[in-house]
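We modelled the chain as a single entity of 535 amino acids. Its sequence is:
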Amino acid sequence: MRTFKYMLAFTGISAMLLLHACTKDFERINTNPYGLSQEELKTDFKLIGEPFKQIQMSIYAVSPGWVMQIQQNLMGDVFSGYMGAPGPFGNFGNNNTTYNLTDGWNVAMWGCAYGSYPDAPNVSVMPIARRIEKLAGNEFRDFKAWMLILKVLTMHRISDVYGPIIYTKYGIINPDKSIDYDSQKDAYYAFFRDLDTAVTILTPLMNSPLKPFQRFDLTYDGSYKAWLKLANTLRLRLAIRISKVDPAKARLEGETALANAGGLLAVTGDDARVNIAPLTHPYNDFSGSWNDIRMGAPMESLLTGYNDPRIEKYFQPSEAVPGAYKGVRTGIALPSKLYADYSKLAVFESKVQLMTAAEAWFLKAEAALWGWANAGDAAGNYAKGIEVSFTQNKVDPVKLAPYLADNTSKAKPYVDTKNAVNNVAAGDSYLSTITIKWNEGDAFERKLERIITQKWIATYPDGQEAWSEFRRTGYPKLFPVVVNNSGGKIPTNLFVRRINFVNTEYSTNPKGVERAITLLGGLDNGGTRLWWDKP
């Protein structure tokens, strides 16, 4: 149990060490290995370019892998229903999986964004981004655009976990030694401004054959056009995210993204994936040698109920029921690693998924529901999203047409072969009844559920994004925890809504946190909704 070995000690100084772990190689990367001057390094882009490798590797902290496990896997991946823990991680599972939010785990995502308090110059994404912005000036505006896209891609995830974050005020230290947070609304508006700046810079360059990023780009081999497509798609993602709480701003930003000449991610070749080779994908350790994660129960319910051919691309048949796929329900009593014989994850290649073309089509489908200009047809976008997801996962194309035409298959009841207390029976209100085939006569909400359910399947394995969309929409229907150790802070039927501010901020920036709680508009716990999480 590799995770348990490291995590339970993460308090005080140990937690601060974790903050440095996310970018432990940054000093080496930014130390001039050849004795060249800063001007010489700027000439071949090395000084400004090398830090981009670290940013791309820190969106998900892939090395060491146990950092990503607590940054992503034991938060978004389990909260989204994608995955479940087969064992307790000590203390009989009294941790995030049962809503006793664990400070030593939850500090990881914050640390990979900020590093040490208050302003360590050589660790984590925000310090790197600020350094690049200073180096870029007006001379390297294309690098500035690239940095802004990566910064927003990272920091919207941070905001979608905690709510208010330090973004526009980063590096501004008050007389009382505190640093102020932005409200989530202000952070999102800043994300849109930064993406607008990036898009404005990259649009005229989209057909340029030049590739100054190439040596440092682990995602798109230095293509201006590819990064522009990603920026537009990210802008649409964030616009859709705020569509319920701020519909006018959402429409403005969404329609701007849809109208840009660079377009959106559209085919599998457009997918944004960070090449982490020669490292292996951390999920292979989590599910394989560590035996710390398994298929989630909602995944079993929906994928087996739909006879979805992607199931064999996502997971391995279980040992518990040979030939069948079995998922673990999150938030159950776990006296031991009882569910290790349930379905492991399929083996991942050494690329970490950031965004896919399939997601873009589902974003367009919802934008069409909202009536946004240039969004196209909701039905067509929905079908295209499934098609592109099939292509992405190398599913036999002959299976697409019958899948799209299926208007009877629904989620299956869930059976826990080891403890019937965890079963979800037919007719249970938490069991989805949505079918696959598009029905133009359905009401808005039914169409939205269909779009988000398929988007949830296609977005796998990015549990962070899936959890955010579940909180925003309530879809797909997930199974509530059976064991709730939150002490009443997180109502079982409402699910976990956020993660509380981290203990290192309470110890080093207490006045900033105090003001951030007023921006949150509720108690600093996992039951308080974020700004865009409108009931």
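As a brief sanity check on the tokenised model: The two ends are 38 Å apart (CA to CA). The chain has a mean pLDDT of 91.
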